[in-house]
């Protein structure tokens, strides 16, 4: 039995990961769980899975949780809680489903402690990809991606020699505004943005999908995860979202991974690798599918994708600044303080004002991240 910790267990990925474990009884012990503040969901999870420990970032929520549960589960509270959980030597694997930049330090800690990594978060790799992959190599830790697109690439490459690779094709559904005229972007509401045509996801990633920044972050993620130049990473708009990504080899062969839109599929494979086990997800019905469509992304309508390509070429601290500017812009949009059409404008201004550090250490990455957040707030407030 594998002892696993799920960081970010109350979100969409965390809940799906627990569903996978529930469907495979006897294979996993849920040793630890974490949440920011949603103790109602966390309490239910604790009751069902009886983890050894949990971590709650919000102090008030953590104290509330302590009063609700028994003594079987130890509760860590505050910023250091995630790292303290990972100290336990009995833990075999860590599934990281924390949203945003908050995942970076726990990921580095998990690698440092020699844990198997199943990674659903893309922002950590965007911020510090070279550092993360270098540390994983030193510790001989394999990072298995959970993101459906990265999982597809990982499965198609299957350890093949990078010299055989010609191109990686990241597929994008195109989000809810794929067919909308650019002039109509001025009136886009939060409600419209959160109505994704294919996936049910958290609020932040759903907004990123609507701006195509999610695909932009995946470009950076793939560049670091698979150690390929950005010039070999292409984006295809594929509205049916059946092909989750493709790999083209130098002999002209293209390998693709197809499945229904269900996050339990890549989560299960990451947890059970190298075995494939029966799961509860649906199957592709090719008789009903009939056709699949592909198109080039419109960078004029979705400039966030172009900004991500720029950051991928610049490297250094620029990807961290891109990510931070996007996180603040999305948050302010969700609060009603920024128009949808202005999200890329804020990010572009932040990047233009940044003085790049070419080969940053962790402290410099965190400093660039903090500066970009403050700068984004200044731009939005003006």
What does this structure look like?
The protein is of the alpha/beta class and 382 residues long. It folds into two domains: 2-145, Rossmann fold (3-Layer(aba) Sandwich); 150-261 and 284-315, no CATH class. The chain contains 16 helices and eleven strands. The strands form two sheets. It has a seven-stranded parallel beta sheet, with helices on both faces. The N and C termini lie far apart (55 Å).
Topology readout:
Elements: E1 2-7, H1 12-23, E2 28-35, H2 39-49, E3 53-56, H3 59-68, E4 74-77, H4 81-85, E5 93-96, H5 104-112, E6 116-119, H6 123-139, E7 143-145, H7 148-157, E8 165-172, H8 190-193, H9 203-211, H10 213-225, E9 233-237, E10 243-249, E11 254-258, H11 264-272, H12 286-289, H13 303-314, H14 318-334, H15 343-352, H16 362-381
Parallel strand pairs: 1-2, 1-5, 2-3, 3-4, 5-6, 6-7, 8-9
Antiparallel strand pairs: 8-10, 10-11
Summarize the structure.
This protein has helices spanning 12-23, 39-49, 59-68, 81-85, 104-112, 123-139, 148-157, 190-193, 203-211, 213-225, 264-272, 286-289, 303-314, 318-334, 343-352, 362-381; strands spanning 2-7, 28-35, 53-56, 74-77, 93-96, 116-119, 143-145, 165-172, 233-237, 243-249, 254-258. The chain is α/β, with parallel strands linked by helices and 382 residues long.
What distance separates the N and C termini? 55 Å
Question: Order of strands across the biggest sheet?
Answer: 4-3-2-1-5-6-7
What is the tally of beta strands?
11
**Mean of all residue-level pLDDT scores:** 94
Which structural class best describes the helix and strand composition?
Answer: alpha/beta
Order of helices and strands: EHEHEHEHEHEHEHEHHHEEEHHHHHH
The level of helicity is 40-55%
Largest sheet: 7 strands, parallel
Instruction: Please name the CATH topology of the largest domain.
Output: Rossmann fold
Tell me the radius of gyration: 20 Å
């Amino acid at each position: 039995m594998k002892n696993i910790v799920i960081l970010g267990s109350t979100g969409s990925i965390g809940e799906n990961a627990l569903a996978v474990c529930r469907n495979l009884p006897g294979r996993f012990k849920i040793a630890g769980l974490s949440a920011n503040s949603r103790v109602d969901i966390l309490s239910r999870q604790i009751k069902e899975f009886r983890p050894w420990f949990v971590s709650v970032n919000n102090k008030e929520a953590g104290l509330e949780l302590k009063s609700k549960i028994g003594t079987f589960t130890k509760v860590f509270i505050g910023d250091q809680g995630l790292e303290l959980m990972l100290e336990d030597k009995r833990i075999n694997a860590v599934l990281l489903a924390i949203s945003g930049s908050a995942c970076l330090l726990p990921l580095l800690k998990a690698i440092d402690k020699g844990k198997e990594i199943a990674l659903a978060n893309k922002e950590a790799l965007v911020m510090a990809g070279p550092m993360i992959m270098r540390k994983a190599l030193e510790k001989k830790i394999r990072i298995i991606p959970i993101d459906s697109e990265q999982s597809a690439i990982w499965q198609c490459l299957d350890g093949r020699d990078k010299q055989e690779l010609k191109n990686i094709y990241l597929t994008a559904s195109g989000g809810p505004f794929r067919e909308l005229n650019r002039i109509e972007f001025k009136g886009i509401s939060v409600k419209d943005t959160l109505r994704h045509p294919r996936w049910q996801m958290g609020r932040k990633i759903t907004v990123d999908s609507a701006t195509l920044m999610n695909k932009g972050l995946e470009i950076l993620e793939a560049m670091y995860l698979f150690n390929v130049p950005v010039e070999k990473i292409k984006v295809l708009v594929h509205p049916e979202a059946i092909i989750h990504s493709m790999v083209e080899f130098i002999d002209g062969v293209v390998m693709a991974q197809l499945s229904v839109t269900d996050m339990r599929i890549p989560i299960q494979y990451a947890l059970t690798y190298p075995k494939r086990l029966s799961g509860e997800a649906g199957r592709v019905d090719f008789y009903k599918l009939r056709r699949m469509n592909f198109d080039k992304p419109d960078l004029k309508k979705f400039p966030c994708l172009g900004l991500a390509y720029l950051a991928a070429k610049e490297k250094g601290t620029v990807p961290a600044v891109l990510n931070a500017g996007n996180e603040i812009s999305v948050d302010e949009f969700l609060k009603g303080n920024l128009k949808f059409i202005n999200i890329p404008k804020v990010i572009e201004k932040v990047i233009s004002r940044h003085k790049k550090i070419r080969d940053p250490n962790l402290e410099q990455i965190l400093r660039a991240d903090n500066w970009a957040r403050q700068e984004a707030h200044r731009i939005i407030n003006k």
